[in-house]
UniProtKB/TrEMBL annotation:
It comes from Aristolochia fimbriata (White veined hardy Dutchman's pipe vine). Gene3D superfamilies: 3.60.21.10, Purple acid phosphatase-like, N-terminal (2.60.40.380). This is Purple acid phosphatase. GO terms for molecular function: acid phosphatase activity; metal ion binding. It is an enzyme of class 3 (hydrolase). Residues 378-441 form the Purple acid phosphatase C-terminal domain. Its EC number is 3.1.3.2.
Length: 454
């Protein structure tokens, strides 16, 4: 993947070397995380001929009244229909989707179905069924409340999950967290199939079966990471993001985007912008133009909480992927300050870190102003690439801890963001070693638009 690493080395780096925050004294046992074997319980294929598997949902429109249901059938295309309704026994509505498939080196995918349920009632539990004949499967989800400034809503934050025993522990901790996440904001790097020879895409299927127990029941909002590239020119695979874009559809057109890799959704009191670290983002590129038009559209009287998801962090004090997010930061950071983005969540670095509210927008390479400064209009940057994938923990930190870094710890875990109203959101990070309700780092966030002085 070396070709994808940007030439950050040529940029002077802006890191203050004093007055740092907390480096947690908690030290996790080291040692590699190993993938769960193919015959693990979490990878079990559901019984029945052509049974739908890898069922997953995500938001299906811009406002929260749509749900995009996806699933895979292995034996034959089967049905593209989703039956759904508000009563378990009476699935009175139906929607028709599409089916796709792809080949990757010598792997041929199953039949990948995508079907959007539209114009659902807000704040309502729906039951839905996929499959036909004897092998139907039923699941349920709850739609979010209507978009509004004081609507409480709870997001989970998971990144770089993979499919190791640690990944399973992270997902279990998320599911068992007493602060019940209603939607996951997923910050990229899903299956890590690319760790296998020829990116053995069977590991995309196992990942889909592993996470079904959560994502069939609540939407995960997808961000693409470097492990979604699946770029293998050495064995003839030259189309980046092929498995990911076939398997994980998102409602990008609803936000005027031209690519699955960057888009936005509104959900309850939050406006969520998803960016792609591994797509062009320089001036005049489609992603740049889209973001430039997107930020002014956010109405903070409607959605006070402006949240950005991006895989590669802009503020990262670990010696892993150090400065990789720097060129994207230089392109977009001044916009984030101008539009008072509240929070930026990233993954990529397999550890946890939370920043102070800082910006580094005065810096222009030659003026020497290379240290981030306190900035009340700036977002807090949070790295949650600690899902527990096969590559193991990032435990080598830059020393001393830079001033912009408020808290950092090399442990696997997940976080939750519990939005209370337009001014207050409670945020907590949980490490996998602890009990389900133990909190390892927490903070109250005050909204940048409604309570900027705090
Ligand atoms: C694909 O190629 C790999 C490596 O040669 C081999 O191990 C695997 O069995 C092949 N898979 C299929 C489906 O042919
Ligand atoms: C459904 O299951 C029944 C009982 O096991 C079987 O007799 C029937 O052939 C099955 N139908 C189909 C379409 O597979
Ligand atoms: C994964 O976690 C679940 C829930 O804790 C557990 O039931 C299952 O046995 C675990 N599987 C593996 C392979 O660790
Ligand atoms: C912003 O949202 C509020 C609340 O829904 C609405 O009253 C107002 O008209 C919107 N402003 C714009 C510019 O659309
Ligand atoms: C930590 O990273 C630094 C910088 O890349 C490197 O020089 C050092 O050897 C690393 N330390 C360990 C223990 O790996
Ligand atoms: C917003 O939520 C916080 C935390 O629950 C609470 O203290 C505050 O009073 C709420 N604000 C309003 C206007 O209700
Ligand atoms: Fe990554």
């Amino acid at each position: 993947m070396g070709v994808w690493v940007l030439l950050v080395g040529i940029l002077l780096h802006g890191v203050a070397l004093c007055n740092g925050g907390i480096t947690s004294s908690f030290v996790r046992k080291t040692g590699m995380s190993v993938d769960m074997p193919l015959d693990s319980d979490v990878f079990r294929v559901p019984p029945g001929y052509n049974a739908p598997q890898q069922v997953h949902i995500t938001q299906g429109d811009h406002e929260g009244r749509g749900v995009l249901v996806s699933w895979v059938t292995m034996d034959e295309p089967g049905s593209n229909t989703v039956l759904y309704g508000t009563s378990k026994d009476k699935l009175e509505f139906r929607a028709e989707g599409i089916v796709t498939s792809y080949k990757y080196y010598n792997y041929t995918s199953g039949f990948i179905h995508h079907c959007t349920l539209k114009k659902l009632e807000y704040d309502t539990t729906y039951y839905y069924e996929v499959g036909i004949g004897n092998t139907t499967r039923q699941f349920w989800f709850r739609t979010p409340p209507k978009v509004g400034p004081d609507v409480p809503y709870t997001f989970g934050l998971i990144g770089d999950l993979g499919q190791t025993f640690d990944s399973n522990s992270t997902l279990t901790h998320y599911e068992s967290n007493p602060i019940k996440g209603q939607t996951v904001l997923y910050v990229g790097d899903l299956s890590y199939a690319d760790n296998y020879p020829f990116h053995n895409n069977i590991r995309w299927d196992t990942w889909g079966r592993f996470v079904e127990r959560s994502v069939a029941y609540q939407p995960w909002i997808w961000t693409a990471g470097n492990h979604e590239l699946d770029f293998g020119p050495e064995f003839g695979e030259r189309v980046p993001f092929k498995p990911f874009t076939h398997r994980y559809h998102v409602p990008y057109r609803a936000s005027g985007s031209t690519s699955q890799l960057w888009y936005s959704v509104k959900r309850a009191s939050a406006y969520i912008i998803v960016l792609s670290s591994y797509s062009a983002y320089g001036k005049y590129t489609p992603q740049y133009q889209w973001l430039e038009q997107e930020l002014p559209k956010v109405n903070r009287s409607e959605t006070p909480w402006l949240i950005v998801l991006v895989h590669s962090p802009w503020y990262n004090s670990y010696n892993y992927h150090y400065m990789e997010g720097e060129t994207m930061r230089v392109m977009y950071e001044s916009w984030f300050v101008q539009y008072k983005v509240d929070l930026v969540f990233a993954g990529h670095v397999h550890a946890y870190e939370r920043s102070e509210r800082v910006s580094n927008i005065a810096y222009n390479i030659v003026n020497g102003k290379c240290s981030p400064v306190d900035d009340t209009s700036a977002p807090v940057y949070i790295t949650v690439g600690d899902g527990g994938n096969i590559e193991g923990l990032a435990n080598n930190m830059t020393e001393p801890q830079p001033a912009y870094s408020a808290f950092r710890e090399a442990s696997f875990g997940h976080a939750v963001l519990d939005i209370k109203n337009r001014t207050h959101a409670y945020y907590a990070w949980h490490r996998n070693q602890d009990g389900f309700s133990a909190v390892a780092d927490s903070v109250w966030f005050f909204n940048r638009y409604w309570q900027p002085d705090n």
